[in-house]
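User: Can you recover a sequence for this backbone? Please restate the input before giving your answer.

Assistant: Of course. Working from this structure:
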């Protein structure tokens, strides 16, 4: 009788040495950098149109999404506009705060570790 060599296949669990399971359970040495939520806060004076412009200009958000987010801030008091790495979040906050100050609006933008 001629014995054919056994064929190794992914579906044949006799050849499953568990490497994949081990790899998944092993903690990677590299960690992801922390991410930061950038939020807009409501106030009684900043015009709605200005907030929409800020969202479009600094966050690349479409005008219909920007309107939605602005209304969320207006009704709930604040909303997360985006989540970024530290330096990008910091830049967004500065850009928004500078732009609002230059236009003499009290709009507040803050960031918080996720
Ligand atoms: N509450 C403001 C108004 O009624 C509008 C507004 C929305 C202001 C969002 C700030 O982050 C803000 N004109």
């Amino acid at each position: 009788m001629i014995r054919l060599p056994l064929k190794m296949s992914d579906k044949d669990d006799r050849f499953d040495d568990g490497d994949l399971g081990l790899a998944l359970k092993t903690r990677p040495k590299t960690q992801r950098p922390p991410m930061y939520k950038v939020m807009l806060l409501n106030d009684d004076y900043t015009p709605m149109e200005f907030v929409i412009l800020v969202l479009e200009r600094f966050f690349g958000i479409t005008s219909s999404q920007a309107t939605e987010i602005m209304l969320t801030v207006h009704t709930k008091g604040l909303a997360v506009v985006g989540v970024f790495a530290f330096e990008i979040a910091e830049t967004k906050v500065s850009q928004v705060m500078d732009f609002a100050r230059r236009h003499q609006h009290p709009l507040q933008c803050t960031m918080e570790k996720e």
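That completes the design. The helical segments are 19-25, 48-59, 63-76, 86-102.
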